[in-house]
């Protein structure tokens, strides 16, 4: 139970998604997991009923493990974990594969296996979750993204601009903490290299790989929850990261909206604010390097768009970072 619960409310509550179809690379059969199912349904029917969830660490596949100390071999797995919502609405693991390519060297581990085999499989998933959490969820998607917004803000918005005043409390120390990270944590011979299976360059590969799926929409909290099909409180009642996140997102958006509407009396006023438009363009062109797939806007057309954009900045720097 605790293992499943951590995917919802642990330090990395952003990877669990509803499983609508088993991927071909994860050939779990009904026979394998039938003993774990509680509703007299087949695995197929449980999937159709919306009771099966999946966590896939595909992004870790092919990342070079840490070899900075030749005397201590280190390893990385890229697991896939199948989870089941039981009759009490608890999320429980029912199958684990530790690699992305099925076969005799990549067996599917089950709760019916030997006690320590199953325990070890779960530990490997937790280890992968840690790498994903530290490098992608925390470093890339809160610290580094906030820095992109911060640099653009300092370059394009004068300190008297109302949006500068709105954002500065949230990103005041971003560049300082990230500079410290680059000097002590993720640098060569830093803490990552000493203590982390992705150290020695793997963590850099991981960030580069994860940027490819970083879109503007994925930073909008409601979109991110919906994209994983975990937005229903009825279906998944114990997902407190989602419930609290929605409330904080709405409160933040409401506050930002109030401020925006004081200074911009029409959508045309937003379109005509050259400094704001330069800020938005700077984030896309310099921060995100104009990646086609990132879908960051290059300009803003309305007060509503500006409100959402600034909510993303504030939420990423404050609530999302605090949650992870």
From TrEMBL:
<keyword id="KW-0479">Metal-binding</keyword>
<feature type="binding site">
    <location>
        <position position="143"/>
    </location>
    <ligand>
        <name>Fe cation</name>
    </ligand>
</feature>
<keyword id="KW-0560">Oxidoreductase</keyword>
<feature type="domain" description="Lipoxygenase">
    <location>
        <begin position="1"/>
        <end position="324"/>
    </location>
</feature>
<dbReference type="Pfam" id="PF00305">
    <property type="entry name" value="Lipoxygenase"/>
</dbReference>
<dbReference type="InterPro" id="IPR036226">
    <property type="entry name" value="LipOase_C_sf"/>
</dbReference>
<keyword id="KW-0223">Dioxygenase</keyword>
<protein>
    <submittedName>
        <fullName>Lipoxygenase-5</fullName>
    </submittedName>
</protein>
<dbReference type="GO" id="GO:0034440">
    <property type="term" value="P:lipid oxidation"/>
</dbReference>
<feature type="binding site">
    <location>
        <position position="321"/>
    </location>
    <ligand>
        <name>Fe cation</name>
    </ligand>
</feature>
<feature type="binding site">
    <location>
        <position position="138"/>
    </location>
    <ligand>
        <name>Fe cation</name>
    </ligand>
</feature>
<dbReference type="GO" id="GO:0005506">
    <property type="term" value="F:iron ion binding"/>
</dbReference>
<dbReference type="GO" id="GO:0016702">
    <property type="term" value="F:oxidoreductase activity, acting on single donors with incorporation of molecular oxygen, incorporation of two atoms of oxygen"/>
</dbReference>
<keyword id="KW-0408">Iron</keyword>
<dbReference type="InterPro" id="IPR013819">
    <property type="entry name" value="LipOase_C"/>
</dbReference>
<dbReference type="InterPro" id="IPR020834">
    <property type="entry name" value="LipOase_CS"/>
</dbReference>
<dbReference type="InterPro" id="IPR000907">
    <property type="entry name" value="LipOase"/>
</dbReference>
<dbReference type="InterPro" id="IPR020833">
    <property type="entry name" value="LipOase_Fe_BS"/>
</dbReference>
<comment type="similarity">
    <text>Belongs to the lipoxygenase family.</text>
</comment>
<dbReference type="InterPro" id="IPR001885">
    <property type="entry name" value="LipOase_mml"/>
</dbReference>
């Amino acid at each position: 139970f605790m293992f499943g619960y951590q995917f919802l409310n642990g330090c990395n509550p952003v990877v669990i998604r509803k499983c609508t179809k088993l991927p071909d690379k994860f050939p779990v059969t009904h026979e394998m997991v039938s003993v774990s199912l509680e509703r007299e349904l087949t695995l197929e029917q449980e999937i159709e009923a919306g009771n099966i969830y999946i966590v896939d660490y595909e992004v870790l596949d092919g990342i070079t493990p840490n070899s900075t100390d030749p005397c201590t071999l280190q390893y990385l797995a890229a697991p896939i974990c199948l989870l089941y919502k039981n009759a009490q609405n608890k999320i429980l693991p029912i199958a684990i594969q530790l690699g992305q390519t099925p076969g005799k060297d990549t067996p599917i581990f089950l709760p019916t296996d030997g006690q320590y085999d199953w325990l070890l499989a779960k530990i490997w998933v937790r280890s992968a979750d840690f790498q994903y959490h530290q490098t992608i969820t925390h470093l890339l998607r809160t610290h580094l993204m906030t820095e992109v917004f911060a640099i653009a803000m300092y370059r394009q918005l004068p300190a008297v601009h109302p949006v500068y005043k709105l954002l500065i409390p949230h990103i005041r120390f971003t560049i300082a903490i990230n500079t410290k990270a680059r000097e002590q944590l993720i640098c060569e011979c830093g803490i990552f290299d000493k203590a982390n299976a992705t150290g020695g360059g793997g963590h850099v590969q991981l960030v580069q790989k994860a940027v490819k799926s970083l879109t503007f929409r994925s930073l909008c909290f409601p979109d991110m929850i919906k994209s994983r099909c975990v937005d229903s409180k009825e279906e998944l009642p114990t997902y407190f990261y989602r419930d609290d996140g929605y409330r904080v997102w709405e409160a933040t958006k409401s506050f930002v909206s109030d401020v925006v509407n004081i200074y911009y009396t029409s959508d045309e006023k937003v379109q005509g604010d050259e400094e704001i438009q330069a800020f938005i363009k700077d984030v896309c062109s310099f921060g995100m390097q104009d990646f086609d797939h990132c879908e960051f806007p290059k300009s803003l057309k309305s007060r509503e768009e500006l409100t959402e954009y600034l909510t993303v900045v504030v939420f990423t720097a404050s609530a999302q970072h605090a949650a992870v």
